[in-house]
Specification:
The structure holds 2 protein chains of 2 kinds. By secondary structure, chain A is mainly α. In chain A, 79% of the residues lie in helices and 0% in strands. Chain A starts with a helix and ends with a helix. By secondary structure, chain B is mostly helical. Chain B has one domain. Classes of the chains: A mainly alpha, B mainly alpha. At the A-B interface, helix 4 and helix 5 of A face helix 6, helix 7 and helix 8 of B.
């Protein structure tokens, strides 16, 4: 039953991705100012949203681990697995954002990179979570989860400060397209295509996140069994 | 100030007074960074005014790594850290004493280095020089408070000396940016550094509070 549900979910995700691609490339009209290159938005924006969502999941997992580790060890392990899965899959999506951004920027701005608020924040966010994953590799033993959770909280705290500091410094990234001034907004067909892609990439991201979570849980189980066997022997 | 904090602080200062390991190694290292940068960029005139703020901050940052790593490595020998864990005093005292001691060491390095720096880069302070007395301590505090915390976190790892900069630098970035921009604007006299000083103060308050709250978790992690 569980396998069937996962199979159906995978099929729906695949269909959504195909439909999203069709909407983005064939249905949405070319942009009045930028021509075809704007279509990167259909991959850039969904990836960014998914990455930020997963980093938030990672933060909640870290806090959950610290709160539960004394009394409810089992749940704390699950929280830690969510923290790891969120950070790892988040880094992958964040990498997609950091790659698609410059490709678009080269055509639209004439430069690959600029030290603007959102670009810098995303880059620093990426660096912070890569360092989080490095810490998890470097530290051995059960203390690793506690130390990683602490670093996860520090990293998340840093993000708003990075954003504000860069905002005061300089800003070049396009202003919010939705809910901005009267000249903002998109063609309805573009909005529709963007929404389909948002849904598709979110479904895909959740699938990967869930798989990564399952793998980590299995990993924890094996580690626990090994420890028990070592004790009995 | 509690007596536990005071005795930790006195102990650290006494060890440093007798060995002078941290201050000497930091001084020489920072001097090397300053010389290397000046060879690499051959700074002259207005250009030297512009980059010198960044150079002094980065030199401090690199130099303090050795002292921060040393701060806890000392406690590992003879299982001192395990004894600290069992001591019935709050971990926050231990942490704060370490931060204060390291803050003092890094500040001494900056004070000694400042004249050398002014000579090598032919600097004139165009803005309000007294503001430097605000910016540098605030930036140093941000560096040392976070650095001491993350050093305590990374001594648990296999290659501890390597891990500290890897986890400290990303978190420290906004403070570095604020510190560089504030020093730069004081040295060149362009722009107003008040905003960056406020940002540094906010950063210090937020991260010192969180470090104090979470230090026990790190100290007792098992």
């Amino acid at each position: 039953m569980k396998k069937l549900a996962i199979g159906i979910y995978v099929a729906i995700t695949a269909a959504l991705l195909v439909w999203g691609f069709y909407q983005a490339v064939f249905v949405a009209p070319a942009d009045a100012m930028q021509g075809e290159v704007y279509r990167i938005i259909f991959y850039h924006v969904p990836s960014a949203s998914v990455a930020f969502l997963f980093f938030a999941i990672s933060l909640i997992g870290s806090i959950g681990f610290l709160a539960l580790r004394r009394n409810q060890a089992g749940r704390a392990q699950a929280a830690d697995a969510w923290a790891l899965a969120g950070a790892e899959v988040g880094v992958v999506f964040c990498t997609v954002v950091l790659i698609t951004g410059p490709i678009w920027g080269r055509r639209a701005w004439g430069i690959w990179w600029t030290w603007d608020a959102r670009l810098t924040t995303t880059l620093v966010l990426w660096l912070i979570y890569v360092s989080y994953l490095l810490l998890r590799r470097f530290v051995a033993g059960p203390q690793m989860q506690t130390l990683a959770a602490v670093l996860g909280i520090f990293g998340a705290l840093d993000v708003p400060i990075v954003y504000m500091s860069n905002r005061w410094w300089r800003t070049q990234h396009p202003a919010p397209v939705f809910g901005g001034d009267s000249s903002s907004g998109m063609d309805p067909a573009m909005v529709k295509a963007l929404m389909w892609n948002m849904g598709a990439w979110l479904a895909w991201g959740l699938l990967i996140l869930f798989l990564r979570y399952r793998v980590e849980r299995q990993h924890q189980k094996f580690a626990e069994r090994d420890a028990m066997e070592a004790l009995e022997a | 100030m509690t007596s536990a904090l005071w005795s930790h602080l006195v102990k650290d200062l006494r060890i440093e007074w007798r060995s002078r390991e941290a201050v000497n190694s930091m001084l020489f290292f920072a001097l090397l960074v300053v010389v290397l940068f000046s060879l690499a960029f051959s700074p002259r005139g207005a250009f030297s005014q512009e980059i010198s703020g960044g150079v002094i901050c980065v030199a401090t940052l690199f130099a303090s790594m050795s002292a921060l790593n040393q701060a806890w490595a000392r406690e590992i020998r003879h299982q001192v850290l395990d004894a600290q864990r069992m001591a019935p005093t709050p971990g926050a005292d231990l942490f704060l004493a370490k931060v204060l001691a390291n803050f003092l060491f890094v500040s001494i390095v900056q004070l000694v280095l400042a004249p050398v720096f002014l000579v090598f880069y032919n600097l004139r302070v165009e803005g309000q020089a007294w503001m430097l007395a605000l910016v540098l301590p605030l930036g140093t505090w941000a560096l040392v408070a976070n650095g001491t915390f993350f050093a305590a976190l990374s001594i648990r790892s296999r290659n501890r000396e390597l891990l500290l900069p890897l986890i400290l630098f990303p978190i420290f970035m906004p403070a570095l940016l604020a510190m560089v921009l504030a020093t730069g604007s004081i040295l060149t006299g362009d722009g107003d550094p008040t905003l960056w000083i406020k940002l540094l103060a906010g950063y210090d308050i937020i991260f010192t509070t969180v470090s104090l709250l979470l230090f026990d978790v790190v100290l007792h992690a098992e």
